[in-house]
Design goal:
Diaminopimelate decarboxylase; lysine biosynthesis; binds pyridoxal-5'-phosphate; TIM Barrel; nine-stranded mixed β-sheet; 28% helix; alpha/beta; De-COase2_pyr-phos_BS; 21 strands; eight-stranded parallel barrel; decarboxylase; Lyase, Ornithine Decarboxylase, Chain A, domain 1; EC 4.1.1.20
Length: 420
């Protein structure tokens, strides 16, 4: 459920008309709903409450905006980060260091030190090599890094191949059949405090069965590690729960997800950790855009050219993803159009042969479900700059990220004098 709805024939975000935001901030612009973020954060938390000890870490990569992180913080969430930059953001948003989990296959020495110096809660190790390096750095600083070992369960999550992370040939985690041996070697290193296991098998998951299979394997591993005399106090079950992108699609609910875990993990006796991203932020944001032109070619589907492009919202170009597209003031007439941006690539196509509200030049429209993996994936391709981000809260709104102009980006570029 979200708070982007038609009122008297016009789309609102909570109690603010999107037309007003377009007027004051310009387009394209991302618009987030605080109430929607909070609602999703609470529904997810409540679904997991029966598990007992639970640590929730919002996946910063899904939406790293500082105001969004602040909302998550207020809801009691920590952060799952995958780079030093995300760690810095999480800290800047006010998240306590101990609530930060650091995932990612390529943590470098500088980022490891950054995490140790800040005192983050947990490093999720993705390889033995990484553990050895972190152990050396921590020991040299007289510290012990709290760690979980990320295990790759070799399970097909049944999602888009580019966001599948739990198959043996994906780069993430250690192979499940080597996990016990690697855990033992890492636990023997003085710079590490091995305290558990982690898994994250993919994103936009539409089926709980692969998760259940993965978690069942994690349960077996926990038992095996304990039988070998190891301490296991934490189990990080990752993120990945999918959300509907098309009106009418049905996904497993957080409640069903929680009930499945309660069944599979009832005897684990651990602190459960979660790293949700999309399920919290996805439907809490839209990308508001204006139609530049409607280009009609005889006997062909017209092109609805909007001012947003693949650099602002990359998912359709990257993964062929669907985003519902709706007029802000629908006229009650429908049309079929190809929804495209202005970028000089055929890939800059949001939708092909889409049945949509009839649109004319100057009309406003939204791409829905753009709150996760939207603004954060933006680039400045075609020298388009970065779009502004707005957060709505009831009947007020604030710009939570300024529009960054092309001039500001090329101000960082230099022409060496030997080119004169
Ligand atoms: C991307 C990612 C997440 C979040 O995934 P969602 O599908 O957005 O919930 C969680 N954990 C890790 C390690 C990730 O890489």
């Amino acid at each position: 459920m979200d708070f982007f709805q038609l009122r008297n024939g016009e789309m609102f975000a909570e109690d603010v008309s999107l037309a007003r935001i377009a007027e004051e901030v310009g387009t394209p612009v991302y618009v987030y709903s605080r109430a929607t973020l909070e609602r999703h954060a609470r529904v997810f938390r409540e679904a997991l409450e029966p598990l007992g000890r639970v640590h929730l870490a919002f996946a910063v990569k899904s939406n790293p905006n500082l105001a969004v992180l602040r909302v998550m913080r207020r809801e009691g969430y920590g952060a799952d980060v995958v780079s030093g930059g995300e760690m810095a953001r999480a800290l800047a948003s006010g998240m306590p260091a101990e609530d930060i989990v650091f995932s990612g296959v390529g943590k470098n020495a500088r980022e490891m030190r950054q995490g140790l110096d800040a005192g983050i809660g947990q490093f999720n190790l993705e390889s033995e090599e990484e553990g050895v390096e972190l152990a050396a750095i921590a020991a040299a600083q007289g510290q012990r890094a709290r760690c979980a070992l990320r295990v790759n369960p070799d399970i097909d999550a049944g999602t888009h191949e580019k966001i599948s992370t739990g198959k043996a040939d994906n780069k993430f985690g250690v192979p499940i059949d080597q996990a016990v041996a690697i855990y033992a070697r890492l636990a023997a290193l003085p710079g590490l405090e091995m305290r558990g296991l982690a898994m994250h098998i993919g994103s936009q998951l539409s089926d709980l069965a692969p998760l259940e299979a993965a978690f069942t394997r994690m349960g077996e591993l926990i038992a095996e590690l304990r039988a070998n005399g190891h301490t296991v106090t934490h189990a990080d079950l990752g993120g990945g729960l999918g959300v509907p992108y098309k009106a009418g699609e049905v996904f497993p609910s957080p409640a069903e997800y929680g009930a499945m875990i309660a069944r599979v993990a009832k005897d684990w006796d651990v602190t459960f950790m979660f790293e949700p991203g999309r399920v919290i932020a996805g439907n809490a944001g839209v990308l508001l855009t204006r139609v530049v032109r409607v280009k009609r070619n005889a006997n062909r589907t017209p092109f609805v050219i909007v001012d947003a492009a693949m650099n602002d919202l990359a998912r359709p170009a990257l993964y062929g993803s669907w985003h519902d597209f709706e007029a802000v003031k629908p006229r009650g007439i429908r049309m079929t159009g190809n929804i495209v941006g202005p970028i000089c690539e055929t890939g800059d196509t949001f939708a092909t042969d889409r049945e949509t509200d009839a649109l004319e030049p100057g009309d406003l429209a939204v791409f829905r479900t753009a709150g996760a993996y939207g603004a954060t994936m933006a680039s400045s391709y075609n020298s388009r700059g970065f779009v502004a981000e707005v957060m709505v809260d009831g009947d007020r709104f604030a710009v939570v990220a300024d529009r960054i102009l092309p001039e500001e980006i090329y101000a960082a570029e230099r022409v060496p004098e030997w080119l004169d």
